[in-house]
Design a protein that fits this description.
Helix 13 packs antiparallel against helix 14. The strands form four sheets. This protein has a seven-stranded antiparallel sheet with strand order 15-12-14-13-17-18-16, with helices on both faces. It has a five-stranded antiparallel sheet with strand order 5-6-10-8-9. Among the domains are: 84 residues, Uridine Diphospho-n-acetylenolpyruvylglucosamine Reductase, domain 2, CATH 3.30.43.10; 119 residues, Uridine Diphospho-n-acetylenolpyruvylglucosamine Reductase, domain 3; 107 residues, Alpha-Beta Plaits, CATH 3.30.70.2190. It is of the alpha+beta class. The chain contains 16 helices and 18 strands. The longest helix is centred in the C-terminal third of the chain and has 20 residues. The protein is globular. It starts with 17 loop residues before the first helix and ends in a 15-residue tail after the last helix.
Length: 474
Amino acid sequence: MSKSKTTSKLTNGAGKSLAARLRAVLPSRIISETAEDLAFHAKDKWFASHPPDAVVFAETTEQVSKVMKFATRHKIPVTARGGGAGYVGGCVPMHGGVALSLARMNRIKEIHVTDGVAVVEPGVITGTLQDAVRAQGLFYAPDPASLRDSSIGGNIATNAGGPRCLKYGVTRTSVLGLEVVLADGSVVRCGGRTIKNKTGFDIVGLFVGSEGLLGVVTEATLRLLPLPPARAVVSASFPTFRAAAEAVQAVFAAGLVPACLEIADAFTLEAARQYLGKQVAPGAKAQLIAELDGQSESVRSEMKALLKLLKNCGALKMATGHGEKACEALWGLRRAYSASLKATGLTKLNEDIVVPRGSLVALVEFGERLSAKYGIPVACFGHAGDGNIHVNLMAKHYHEDQKVHAKVNKALDELFREVLRLGGAVTGEHGIGLAKARWWPLAVSPATRQTHEILKKALDPLGILNPGKFVQGA
């Protein structure tokens, strides 16, 4: 850690910086006010940035509790963060104060094979947990695309999704119990280590997806499943997006439930061709990638039926893979979509909207009209199985030209209104954060917003947890 210092804006009457005041109640080794640490904790992967006045690298629940007691006593803002892999500015400390890093709380405390649970700290990286449980023949189902960067705490804060949501559900489905430090420093334990638990309100569900506005998760008990012994993947190209979307409906009509079912449009495929430097789905305007998992015999049988179905739906070409190595090779194309779009040199504005599955074609066709109206390319790809499509506005000079910026905002206004008209939601897995706060009043009713505000005031009456976001405090 660098020894260069910045001058803190938050001081007491004696002129002591916030970091100096924190050192009176916490070990000095976990507190920083270096320029490097303040800059790093000022942002996530979105565009907004605001530095904290100090960073606390918590190592224990007790330390988190002390931070919150101090913050409550002195009315200091606290913004918790994990891996900083979010896409909506959810952990940007907009009011300064303390950036509470949970990265050092990264222990896997327990993997219990017979109970089918893992007990972990919030700083554990998702992919690290998956690897650890896999080594014991178990399976942690949630799989956000950022699994090698994002932390379990961050996944819980946003109720993260990923390709396997279709079969296994979002993060909430796998969270059995939580330890949470509230704004006043008190520690709450909710849920447990059993799949069924109806002891009172669903307090676990209240904190999952709360984006750090209601409390700080310091431990999670997670549900594990037996590792499926077999998996297979098919990558199928189609002449039109409509044909690919109709194939999605045909898959479900046939009684098949893939672990993953991903789709990509023509712009995304062309960007992938340019980025990978090779022919990707030649002649295709859309691509489907489906994964099956389970027992070997059932996977072989279902793959046979799936291939026949996709061919009857007009697939131009299909490639299949069985087993880990072959499946991962086919997933390489899907994982390259985002990097391919970024490589175009355009600013990629990733909107993780959700529509009912039957509205996939309507959504993409609306995107095409939006592109023609505003002269902004629109790339669509994502989780066709659950309707969570990443609609990416690809803007040139977005950060440099205010006219482009204003045009993009108008296009987004239209996009989100259309998504809501179709019965969808403005975010499926990234959260509201800062990026979507503008559309929060459009997305939910006044009564729903008031309910959020009541909960916020009850658990954080001073409004010190992650202030400046979509639900305001005191």
